[in-house]
Amino acid sequence: MMHMTFYWGKKVTILFDSWRTDSWAGYLLSLIALFAVAAFYQYMEDRRVRFKIIARSKPSSTPGIGAPFLLPVAASRLGPPARFASAILFGVNSAIGYLLMLAIMSFNAGVFIAVVVGLAVGYLFFRSGGEEDLVVLENPCACA
């Protein structure tokens, strides 16, 4: 039976019927795997944002801050390979994020902690360098 509240324990089913833990060693290995996947999620998000910055940093004749309504035109000047690669990275990152969310929905407190700590550590190592602030500063739209 599936739990509908948080619980502590080594017996948990994560994502698939075949990913069940019955021993403390298996449970610990599963938590380490979830921690690593959560940190990898932050790494992939950093790669996606950096790719977008690099792809948009090509010199163009479209003024950025002076004409905020022309920003979509500048984005459309990216070549089809760059847009396709960006879409692929977004799709992979979205899939990883949803799988992490579904793992948390096992309602095991250890799984929850492993994923949240993995996301925090991944953010610390891969995304806390200030690039997000740069993206926000480059966007003149007040709603960004």
Automatic annotation (TrEMBL):
Record keyword Glycoprotein present: no
Which key words are in the record?
A: Copper, Copper transport, Ion transport, Membrane, Transmembrane, Transmembrane helix, Transport
Compartments where found: Membrane
Q: Which residues cross the membrane?
A: 24-44, 84-101, 107-126
Q: Does the keyword Metal-binding apply?
A: no
This protein's membrane topology, according to the annotation, is:
Multi-pass membrane protein
Any one GO molecular-function label of the UniProt entry: copper ion transmembrane transporter activity
Report which residue ranges the record marks as coiled coil: none
Gene Ontology, cellular component aspect: plasma membrane
Q: Which Pfam families match?
A: Ctr
- Family, similarity comment: Belongs to the copper transporter (Ctr) (TC 1.A.56) family. SLC31A subfamily.
Q: What is this protein called?
A: Copper transport protein
Q: Please tell me the species this chain comes from.
A: Musa acuminata subsp. malaccensis
